Amino acid sequence: MFNAEKPSLEELPSSAQLIRSTVIAAVGAVVILVTVVLPAEYGVDPTGVGRALGLAEMGEIKQELQREAEEDAQQHSAITAPSLADILSELFVSKAHAEEVWRDTVVFTLAPGASAEIKMVMAEGDVADYVWTAEGGRINFDLHAHGGGQSVTYDKGRGKTEGDGSISAPFPGEHGWFWRNRDKQDVTITLQVRGSYSEIKETY
Amino acid sequence: MPLVLLTALVLSAGQALAHAVTAGDAGYIQEIWGVNLIPFTYLGAKHMVTGYDHILFLLGVVFFLYKMKDVAIYVSLFAIGHSVTMLAGVWFGWGVNAYIIDAIIGLSVVYKALDNLGAYQRWFGFQPNTKAATLIFGLFHGTGLATKILDYDIPEEGLLPNLLAFNVGVEIGQILALAVILIVMGYWRRSPSFFRQAYTANVVMMSLGFMLMGFQITGYFVAV
Predict the structure, then answer these.
(1) What pLDDT is recorded for position A7?
(2) Interface test with A, best of B7, B11, B19 (most A CBs within 10 A)
(3) What 3 state SS string does A15-83 have?
(4) Predicted TM-score of the model (pTM)
(5) Within a 10 A sphere around the Cβ of A139, how many other Cβ atoms?
(6) ipTM of the complex, rounded to two decimals
């Protein structure tokens, strides 16, 4: 029976050895938990070791994303009417008439960790062209759209400094960018757009 | 006052930015770029320690290994196997179906349990090379790891150092898991009923392997 020899007692670790190993394992587990796992999972870093290792940042980003995913789920389950903020934010769009080819130019600066959303209100079949550059650092973006319960992701990027292209709206709704600065310093983004859209909404 | 109200409104709108959020480890990885050795080492270790399929196979491999030298040899073979396909799989972007590969990983658990029970000697009259089996199934485990890493969508920038860090993490995780397994087995083997219970334990392990296979094969057909 078995593809194995029966162990002789001298081949096995002694009881004292096993108890010592268990204590070491338990203490080791607590140390790793506090210095590595809790920072990396929850951003909880009582010793500061997680921060030094760069793991506390991971935990913070994960917690932040989790929060946003929940907010996102709530937001999309409710029917959202345009808020006063949406209407007012329209006022902040600078109309760059000097630049003939581009219809709108939006310039904004994000501090590290900050995010913004720049959306174009488009009807089905509307086409918009864009070009953007980031100065001072590198930026993450998610070019996507929501509307009438539908959503689409056109493009995503991380650590980029420029981009250009064109989007064609497959459904009516808000089409545009979610920007987030994961760099160490302020990043200024200059976004230029043109095409068939009714308005630009900015959320900071 | 109206101005304050206005600011508050704009800020509250900023709290509820809507975009397709990816949470968890994948979400974190999709927010970063460049070389991040320690975070990727951590993620590799986490993947191994929380990967019950890898742990089950590892348990099967060391079940009847009493000498640390043998443990080291077999675990190294497993490590070489899974490292080769993990690195190659991610580097070349092998698009292997995760359900199929995970079903084969389930099969590796069944195989090892039967091997431990001496079934191949009983049924076929010979013992297939256990070292070769550990290495070959290691290759499949690595392919499984590669599919998970590809899902993470690691940025191109810094891919190789990050991947190597992840691999180092996988091995650290394996050593941590192994330490716990060996301590528990150490106590168990000292008990007089170990050899009797070993039969049942390997049958349970085999059952878990079948369960993993069934779970993954069903997933292949029904999961979207």
Answers:
(1) 75
(2) B19
(3) HHHHHHHHHHHHHHHHHHHHHHHHHHHHCCCCCCHHHHHCHHHHHHHHHHHHHHHHHHHHHHHCCCCCC
(4) 0.76
(5) 26
(6) 0.71
